[in-house]
Amino acid sequence: MLKDILCVLLDHQRFVITTHRRPDGDAIGSQIALGSFLKKLGKQVVMFNSDPVPSSLDWMPGSGAIQTGETQINRNAVADADIVVVVDTNSRDRLGRAVRRALYRYRGPVLLIDHHTGPESWFTWMLCDEHAAATGALIYDLICTYDADMIDGQIATALYTAIMTDTGSFRFAAVTPAIHRMAADLLDRGSYSPSEVYAGVYENHTPSWPPFLAMVLRGLTLLHDGVLAYITVTPHMLKTAGIDYSEVEGLSEFAMSVAGVKVVLIFTETKKGTKVSFRSKGDLRVDVWAQSYGGGGHQNASGAFLKDQLIRTAVMNVLESAPHFLGIKKVEDMVLAEEDQAYLKVLSSLNQ
Q1: What are residue 341's phi and psi, to 5 degrees?
Q2: pLDDT tens per residue, range 247-275
Q3: What is the three-class DSSP state of 254?
Q4: At 195, phi and psi to the nearest 5?
């Protein structure tokens, strides 16, 4: 399969590489690594996303070359491409508006490189492995199939960041001895130390972050004997703290650190609905749970978007289905506890 996909890359000259909206470390790292590799092969490469590189990743070498927005230049790049490569997402909707609109004029082949479950059927070729720890791991194997010495400092740093972020700093179930060997090789070739990569991704919050975090954690709620924890984020909370949605990432780590918690849900209300992030430990799968709401992802990290649902409705909706997906036997009262009902009333008042 790797050789077949490599032949696809070698047979084309003009590339556009794109990824999902609100890109994370695996998305940006995979995009930069593949783009840099193709450029070293003498290919013409445009990296184009709907959303800009987040501040937690703009330190990465090569990130400045990623273009965003509904510009004529970006639309022309897609229209003129020999091939479009989509990395780290297998859904057209998740590409975001700018990329989707640019694809309207494109009639060429599309290659998917991804590790999520349930890819859509419109791709021409696929390099997919839902058991891979990260899309970056697939790209590492792809480059090594051609020549491992093509992995320079920029590519290595991008791939290490991709793998580190999508494995929860090497602690998710998909992490194997082979992933650690891969990471070691990338560190040998890379231009940043592990501490520098970690700091760049996770230690760059604004001074408004601590008050926001305190506000969020006051609402952390435990259910089902402490197995499940959930957190809610409303526009009012963001406005009060003076931060934007880019700083919402990482909240699950705090809830997951509570003894006994195996699943964390983060509900984030937006103008168009409520985003739900599902996180879990070990063999407890949350991808099927997310899929039941039209989302998807990995065994331990998935997401869904409940369109047009206010956060109080989304919370009630998802929590009522928790016993089924967590394998918890039905208890006498499946309705939320009184304190949770009171909390939801507070959320309701914040959105008035």
Answers
A1: -60, -40
A2: 787 889 899 999 999 999 999 999 889 99
A3: helix
A4: -65, -35
